[in-house]
Amino acid sequence: MPTTTAATSAAAPPAPDSQERITAEITAAHAATAPGAAQPRIDFPPYRSSALRHPTKDPRHADPEGIELVAPVFGHSDIDPVEADLTIQHGGEPIGERMLLTGRVLDGDGRPVRHQLVEIWQANAGGRYIHKRDQHPAPIDPNFTGVGRCLTDGDGTYRFTTIKPGPYPWRNHVNAWRPAHIHFSLFGTEFTQRLITQMYFPGDPLFALDPIYQSITDRPARERLVASYDHDLTTHEWATGYRWDIVLTGTHATPLERAEHE
Amino acid sequence: MSETLAPTPGQTIGPFFHDALPYPGDSLLVPPGSAGAVRLHGTVYDGSGAPVPDALVELRQADPAGRVPRVEGSLRRDGRFTGWGRAATDAAGRYAFTTVTPGGADGGAAFFAVTVFARGLLDRLFTRAYLPGESDAFLAGLPADDAATLRVLRDTRPGAGTGAGPGDLRFDIHLQGERETVFLRYPRHAFPRCGR
């Protein structure tokens, strides 16, 4: 067995938990949470790493002001268009199912988030990250780093070409496997809209078992993280197509303030 | 208010973001040694007081005159002050930015707006790091112990092993525990209550 890292050994549990126990805890946590919660519970015991890393006090209400009303601005000087294609970053073709991934970034009022940065990272087709701390004994793909960036267009649309990531094991409990996912990092027009999340694939059999996905206790809210297969996006003899739209929280600036900033 | 769409939920940043989100110069909002440059640094702690070596801290701020930058170029700075940066914590849970001291935007108190992500943290957290001596209605409305968690300290002597020097700004972040940092909820943010 690979040795555990310093980060996980600090509070080393006596015996690893079974999936049955984790699943029972997920069921109990869902039952104990009011329905309709739109965001994950940050105190979610089945995700063991959360135990000491979530605030125990309710967050304080604050009206955003000044700097909090303006997101950082990114533009064409920040990134190269080829960063949106994760399959051409090396000398050869990565292994796996080539896929196109697109969707729109909207704010909570349905307005497109235009010309804003989208960052993604993911495992390769075998479920292995390039990251030095990933010890899953699946092969590294020398032609796949799994990192991409793009700007949304004038309609809030982002587009990536990548490889469908594989599921991978982790050490939350015995035989723990993450559903295949792509990490997304998003900005809105306000600082308050910052979002990092994970996109999943439809029909994944690991959904019910995964404490990270299940930390969103409301089923419709969870399902907002699942992309849809789109055959119109799939291209002949080239790549499958998936579509996933992202909705950030609402903005606070008045229409006049927004007009001044645009 | 117009129709409100249901937001996409957040998820943890996980352990594997280091090849994706950090980039050269991410934490250098201004070049080290440039006029007015100041170091803002701190440690992210968990509820047991242990440092968090896999957190990411993002910073948003005004310039010294209190102007809010709306210029691109944070990823390739090229001398532009964009008022935004990010810093991953190191093996000892420490982060550091080189930046300028912000003025208060729109006549308000001067603070850094801060976002925190970490493995084990299921959604991002927002907070404020107020410059020494600054206050406003929000800070004044907090119990003293809570308000203290939002105040930037000015180092008076070199920090052992941290590279910090006199005049540096220090802001530690406690995700949990006795000195738990006050985190913010803005209007229009959902926040599920613990059911226990």
Nutshell version of this structure?
The complex is a heterodimer of chains A (262) and B (196). Chain A has 262 residues and is an alpha+beta fold. In chain A, 11% of the residues lie in helices and 21% in strands.
Supply database-style keywords.
heterodimer, A: 262 residues, alpha+beta, five-stranded mixed β-sheet, four-stranded antiparallel β-sheet, 12 strands, disordered N terminus, B: 196 residues, mainly beta, Protocatechuate 3,4-Dioxygenase, subunit A, 2 helices, 5% helix, globular
What does this structure look like?
The complex is a heterodimer of chains A (262) and B (196). With 262 residues, chain A is of the alpha+beta class. Chain A has 4 helices and 12 strands. In chain A, strands 2, 5, 10, 11 and 12 form a 5-stranded mixed beta sheet that branches. The longest helix of chain A is centred in the N-terminal third of the chain and has 13 residues, at 19-31. Residues 1-8 of chain A have low confidence and may be disordered. Chain B is mostly beta strands. Chain B has one domain: Protocatechuate 3,4-Dioxygenase, subunit A (Sandwich), CATH 2.60.130.10. In chain B, the strands form 2 sheets. In chain B, strands 1, 4, 7, 8 and 9 form a 5-stranded mixed beta sheet that branches. Chain B has a 4-stranded antiparallel beta sheet with strand order 3-2-5-6, with no helix packed on it. Chain B is globular. In chain B, 46% of the residues are buried. The interface between A and B is large, with 94 and 88 residues.
